[in-house]
Amino acid sequence: MRLALTGLPLSGVKSIHSAITGHAEAGGLHSGAAGQARISVLQVPDPRLDLLAETFKPRKVVHATVELAEFPGLFGAAKLDNQNVAKTREAEALALVLRCFESEVAPHPTGSIDAGRDLDNLYSEMVLADLAVVEGRLQRLASSVKRRDNEDDLAEHALLTRIRQVLEEGQGVRQTQLQAQERKRLRGFGFLTAKPMLIILNIGESQLGEEEELAAPFRGRADQVEALCGSLESELAQLDEGERAEFMSDFGVEELAAPLVLAAAYRTLDLRTFFTYSEDEVRAWNVRAGQTAKDAAGKVHTDLARGFIRAEVIAWQDFEQHREIKAVKAAGKFRLEGKEYVVQEGDLIIIRHSS
Fold this sequence. Notes:
Blueprint: E1 2-7, H1 13-21, E2 29-30, E3 38-43, H2 47-56, E4 60-62, E5 65-70, H3 82-88, E6 93-99, H4 115-147, H5 151-168, H6 180-186, E7 197-202, H7 211-215, E8 224-228, H8 230-236, H9 241-251, H10 257-269, E9 271-277, E10 281-288, H11 293-300, H12 302-306, E11 308-314, H13 316-322, H14 325-330, E12 335-337, E13 348-353
Parallel strand pairs: 1-5, 1-6, 4-10, 6-7, 7-8
Antiparallel strand pairs: 2-3, 3-5, 9-10, 11-12, 11-13
Helix pairs in contact: 1-8, 1-10, 4-5
């Protein structure tokens, strides 16, 4: 899963990135040249993996991961960085940093703090970026539509004409009523205004304790909203565990940024975690809510999806109760499911397939 982290200039995107990644136990931070994305890979902590490792004693334990890609200066510049916008389109969701903190050293470029206004400006730029993509594609389709010799092109042109009207009205692709086939047709465009959105309010130390009050006005404007102090959290991330706990207590910080944002990202994308297990490896995987056993097989390996026969499934609560496969089977909780089975949170799944 890739999460694109961005915001307006001086909103504190870099400090939020450092806060989230600074205390990651694994994964790497890859810094490119100025203007290029910084990409971090974070392991998703999951105590259920500890129980699986204790039971199966595998050679390898693999956590699910989230790729966090920071795009500096993407919005709010005189000219839109089309190269990084294209990379942002590859992300499954957007994390937009909105500035709520005051600073005499780095005053807000507009001269005042107004996170709602900043969100409007960000969204307007995303709408314009999507509109440019639509206009370009419609131009390329024009000759085919004029000849009326390609039904697919005619359908795409009609759909994009509707999307253009929505965007011209300042609305996003997500506000458009679409059929499943139409959503599938639009998927390859990676429209920014079609993506799930997480808002991160970057607050000041003086605003600690006001997180819910600050977040409340944005609850209906994004899939998830979190408020955290990027400057403080990035400093906490550099401390050892003992010092960190003391400072967190002093500032009233109950939870660090990384697990907070990772949990919000999971909710934003409506993800479900399933596990595979063997003596060699226990591993956590993610699928979207509503995805099937065959989809899960494809996550593990495309060959498993192609040769899918059945899925051996154990619900997490059943494994947690019995702690070993023999006991689960004896209790009648070991199930065989077909390719249309909808994966549930925490399922243990082994895919049986033809070679």
